[in-house]
Amino acid sequence: PSDVFVVDNASTDNTLSLLKKHQIFDIEVSESNLGFGAANNIALEKALKLDYDFFFLINQDLYLQENTLRQLVQFADNHKDVGIIAPIQYDGTGNEIDRNFQQYISNSREKDLYYETTFANAAAWLITKECLQKTGNFNPLFSHYGEDRNFCDRALFHNFSISIVKETKVLHDRLQKMSLEKYIKLSKIKLLTIFLNPNLSKTESIKIALFNVFGMGKYFLKKHNSFSAFFHFLHEY
Length: 237
Prior knowledge:
By secondary structure, the protein is α+β, with helices and mostly antiparallel strands.
């Protein structure tokens, strides 16, 4: 059994009229787009006060399979050290694993029934009550992108593990396009997550950050395809 909380980020389509056709436990309507983290914080704070055992975050472009939630809760019941449990995200067709999510799996340690990881994006997350109480809400410094990585870093700092459960499936129906401008934005957000990572010392943060900054160079070269790419990169640096 589960209750549905919806936070509407100032939608301009017929979202609210569609919601009225369903039994929604709680609907919060914002006059502006608060961003991913802040909107989730509203629902999480309400649900935490009502003493729920688990909190499942789901993006608006994601489709659940019928037994997904049951599988995640059962896994959490059997693994008391886990704080964040993620299903495997497939693309909108359901035939292929989401390209970005495949990278998270590749960077994880494989176990019999799951992957032990340090990060999975929050488009579909089951968070335990203990983890949310200890880790806290999403950091309001992040409006969109980076908030989930920062939350993962903090959860790990508080000794909660993060798992991607095998034999689970959700469909993340999104387009994945990358431009130089978007890559610069994501890189800057990643730098912020590095400097705010409580698991790293200041020296470690600087080393990792510098490595990531210089890794941006190849994207400037792809766009400008000439020696001028260096000057564009230098300006951004």
